[in-house]
Write a structure and sequence with these properties.
mainly alpha
Length: 328
């Protein structure tokens, strides 16, 4: 995408180390939805860049079977293709559509099947987890949260205040301007990466009752690329760019690894800076503790026994589902 193998490698490492985003999908059985979706999303984009549009469309379809929000991939590919040309005239727009019509057709099919056979989310009550809200305040609130969580994937601070967030975005903007000015990148690439970041968040920005940080996984590659381009741009303002860029990169990588260690040591609970997660590590500890004690103290319960558990998060093992499995 950037035609820069070093940058691509760094983004890949940072993305893989972003445990603050990947914690739930990696620890949860149903996390395969997001892992599988992201896997085919990346390959759909990869084969599209190589000009293998049929294979790209196949990967898109497989990804959409894992995660419905990937239905926006055709729009992303269309904008990338159109933006790759010198101008946005009608000829280039038609050329971009000729490369993505299969993707759009597949997306239309998926959407029609969802509308015909799926749940009508428009009629869901406002308290439902998947209820939609188009209120500007709700959308902006969610957008701010997801940006904070993506920043925490490389800067593990407990509290990202509004003032600190403004400072970070000002520094990001300054770095991007510097990178464009010094011809480290064209202006089209940062604009496309910003579009990618926001576009892939749209399906979850309208869900006020279902806000989890792992939904940022599809925007995170673009966001991390923006961060590294900005850091590269900032180094032009100080001189000795090679050494400064290397130092900043090592700091980012070290912080990312340290963050992963801190998350596991704190059991990833809601009491850490995480938030927006399902406390899966803490719940795994609960399951292990409850299961071990039950099997030791009550090895052979009689049929129809009722087990009462006090001060225990029953959702850690889905209520009675856990004991039913343990005593099979």
């Amino acid at each position: 995408l950037m035609k820069d193998s070093d940058l691509a490698l760094l983004v890949g490492i940072l993305y893989g180390c972003a445990l603050a985003i990947h914690l739930d999908p990696l620890c949860w059985a149903v996390g395969i939805y997001d892992l599988g979706g992201m896997f085919f999303f990346i390959f759909s984009f990869y084969f599209f860049i190589l000009g293998k549009n049929w294979i790209s469309c196949l990967c898109f379809c497989l990804g959409a079977l894992f995660k419905e929000s990937l239905i926006l991939i055709p729009t992303l590919l269309f904008v990338y293709s159109a933006g790759s040309n010198a101008t946005w005239d009608l000829k280039n727009v038609k050329l971009a559509f000729s490369k993505t019509w299969m993707h759009f057709g597949s997306a239309a099919f998926f959407l029609s099947m969802k509308l015909v056979y799926g749940v009508n989310i428009i009629t869901l009550p406002s308290s439902h987890p998947y209820a939609i809200s188009l209120r500007i305040h709700s959308i902006l609130s969610n957008l701010t949260l997801y940006f904070k969580w993506m920043i925490q994937s490389i800067i593990p601070v407990n509290v990202l205040t509004d003032g600190f967030l403004v400072f970070l975005f000002a520094a990001l903007l300054l770095g991007l301007i510097s990178a464009v000015r010094h011809k480290s990148t064209s202006i089209k690439m940062p604009l496309f990466l910003i579009f990618w970041t926001v576009l892939m968040l749209i399906p979850v920005l309208i869900l006020p009752n279902h806000v989890y940080r792992y939904y940022a996984a599809y925007s995170l590659p673009a966001f991390l690329t923006l961060i590294l381009i900005s850091f590269r741009g900032l180094t032009f303002l100080f001189g000795k760019t090679h050494y400064l860029a290397l130092a900043l990169t090592l700091i980012i990588l070290d912080v990312s690894v340290i963050q992963s260690n801190l998350l596991f040591r704190s059991a990833g609970t809601a009491r850490t800076f995480l938030g927006g997660n399902n406390n899966l590590i803490e719940r795994a500890e609960i399951v292990q503790t409850v299961r071990t004690n039950l099997l030791r103290n009550l090895p052979n319960p009689t049929s129809g026994s009722i087990i009462l558990l006090g001060d225990v998060d029953l959702w850690a093992f889905s209520g009675s589902s856990g004991p039913r499995v343990w005593y099979l």
